[in-house]
Design goal:
Order of helices and strands: HHHEEEHHHHHH
Distance between the termini: 194 Å
Largest sheet: 3 strands, antiparallel
Number of strands: 3
Subcellular location: Cytoplasm, Cytoskeleton, Microtubule organizing center, Centrosome, Centriole
Protein name: (California timema) hypothetical protein
Organism: Timema californicum (California timema)
Keywords: Coiled coil, Cytoplasm, Cytoskeleton
GO cellular component, one term: centriole
């Protein structure tokens, strides 16, 4: 019975070992798959890190470009403010000049009315000398000068309007650019927050991968320990096989002893004191093995007619055999106890191995789930990174477009400055001429308006008109009667101010010229008739 139980225990141990080997192989396969997935996850993480670094570099370049565009925009805004300030100053100056011109016109009209009333008596002689001085060529030249100044004034006005429109367009473009830059800044801030969240997720994933690597290292150590335990179990199995063979041999020997345990002694020769007894057929020496003890029954040796004493040689032999069997029984009991302890330790080891295999299977399943989740997170991060890369490229293109717009705005600001400087120079030149002409007119004495002085002035001041300023001096150096002095001053003032409104420009000058040389020359016609009549009288 003990051998059968040992055989069953051995078979159960072998089945448990086979199950343990299968579980270990499955755990090894799952560990290898987890290692492969971990390597793939590490490669994916490295690719994601590289893409994140590229996205960070592109974001930094976009931020630098944005800062540069902001600086350019601030410079353009400052230039636009300066241009607007200069334009406002020029506009105020134009308004002041218009008011001054209007005051001059009112003063000239008042003086003209006063002088017209005072110069009715000697208008004939003075008009005659003025007609000799102001000829038709001078009038046409003055009108040409006025037309050129009028054209220049028109150009200046158109430039002023164009400057105003360009300044307004520049303000609008700057406002739109500021709004767009603010929108870009908000988008960049949101992208920065998103990138920071991605970095936090990647750091968490890195920590998680490190923990998974630690768990994998622990699993590998556990595998090595399990392999060492399996090697020990194999050695124990080999020892158990050897002990099984030994036990099987001993069991076979014990069976033979048990079968032949009864020894029949058919003939016992008992040596008595002086004779040999006859053999007793009922004398039997029986050896039985009962409950692990060897009991020797030596019945009474019955001879035919009397009882003989037992043989001392047989008793010694039986006692030695009994002691040997008891020693073998003790040895077998010790071996059986050792086998029971080994089997119990092996069963405990198998239970521990089975429990560890179950835990390893659960850990592998959790690792596979975590790896799948990591792969899902990596795919999501890759998609988000692709979207962010597209957004960064779009922002780069927008930044390039804004840079081009800023360059165009700077070019327009430079053009505005140039036009403004040219207009300011023209206005200063006109203002200078305007201040020179009344001073020159006021500096002429009234004694130069008689006939003899007019002739001398004509002789001493030839008509050299090489420039407009020289033309003014030559024209005013001619003898002009006091009655026409204010009219000529009004004519030259209106000519020197070409940016005045239409009623004070060419139409006014033409009307003034016509009124001066037609309406006011009517007394001269009477004087001519008087001179003709005097010549006729002298001839007669």
């Amino acid at each position: 019975d003990e051998s059968v139980s040992k055989e069953q225990t051995y078979r159960s141990v072998e089945r448990s070992l086979e199950d343990l080997r299968q579980e270990l192989e499955a755990a090894n396969r799952s560990r290898d798959s987890a290692l492969r997935e971990n390597r793939s996850v590490e490669r994916s993480m490295e690719a994601v890190r590289q893409e994140l670094e590229a996205a960070n570099r592109s974001r930094d370049s976009a931020l630098r470009e944005n800062r540069r565009l902001q600086d350019d925009l601030a410079a353009a805004i400052q230039d636009c403010r300066v241009a607007n300030h200069s334009l406002e100053e020029s506009r105020q100056e134009v308004e002041n000049l218009k008011r001054q011109l209007q005051d001059y016109v009112d003063e000239v009209r008042r003086v003209e009315e006063i002088l017209t009333l005072k110069s009715l008596d000697n208008a004939g002689v003075r008009c005659l000398t003025s007609l000799n001085c102001l000829q038709e060529g001078e009038r046409s030249e003055m009108l040409e000068h006025f037309r050129s100044l009028s054209v220049e004034a028109t150009v200046l006005e158109s430039n002023n309007h164009s400057l105003e429109s360009e300044a307004e367009e520049t303000r609008t473009a700057l406002r739109v650019a500021q709004e767009h830059v603010a929108d870009l800044e908000r988008q960049v801030f949101s992208r920065d927050a998103l990138v920071r969240s991605y970095e936090n997720q990647i750091s968490e994933l890195t920590v998680h991968v490190a923990s998974l690597e630690t768990q994998l290292r622990q699993q590998m150590e556990l595998r090595q320990q399990t392999e060492a335990d399996l090697t020990a179990v194999r050695e124990l199995c080999v020892n158990i096989d050897d002990q099984k063979e030994v036990l099987s041999k001993q069991n076979s020997d014990n069976d033979i002893v048990k079968i032949h345990c009864v020894v029949h002694v058919p003939t016992l020769l008992c040596s008595c004191s002086w004779r040999v007894c006859s053999p007793c057929p009922d004398i039997t020496v029986q050896l039985q093995l009962e409950t692990g003890e060897c009991v020797v029954h030596v019945p009474t040796l019955l001879c035919s007619w009397r009882v003989c004493s037992p043989c001392p040689d047989i008793t010694v032999q039986l006692e030695s055999e009994l002691s040997r069997l008891r020693e073998e029984q003790e040895i077998m009991q010790q071996r059986a106890a050792k086998d029971r302890a080994a089997v119990s330790s092996l069963e405990d080891m198998l239970a521990d191995s089975r429990h560890e295999a179950v835990e390893q299977r659960a850990a592998n399943q959790s690792l596979q789930a975590q790896v799948a989740q990591l792969q899902t997170n990596i795919s999501d991060l890759q998609e988000k990174l692709a979207l962010e890369t597209a957004e960064v490229r779009r922002y780069a293109s927008q930044a390039a477009a804004l840079n081009q717009q800023v360059t165009e705005l700077q070019r327009e600001v430079v053009n505005v400055r140039f036009n403004h400087a040219r207009a300011t120079e023209g206005q200063s030149k006109i203002k200078k001429e305007k201040h020179q002409i009344p001073n020159f007119l006021d500096a002429q004495p009234d004694s130069t308006w008689n006939g003899s002085s007019s002739v001398e002035t004509k002789q001493t001041h030839p008509r050299e008109r090489t420039s407009k300023s020289r033309y003014c001096g030559t024209a005013l150096s001619c003898v002009v009667p006091p009655a026409l002095k204010q009219d000529v001053f009004y004519l030259i003032s209106a000519t020197a101010r070409p940016y005045e409104a239409a009623p004070y420009r060419e139409d006014n000058i033409i009307y003034l010229a016509r009124s001066t040389f037609s309406r006011k020359i009517n007394p001269i016609k009477d004087l001519k008739q008087i001179q003709r009549s005097e010549k006729v009288n002298n001839k007669n």
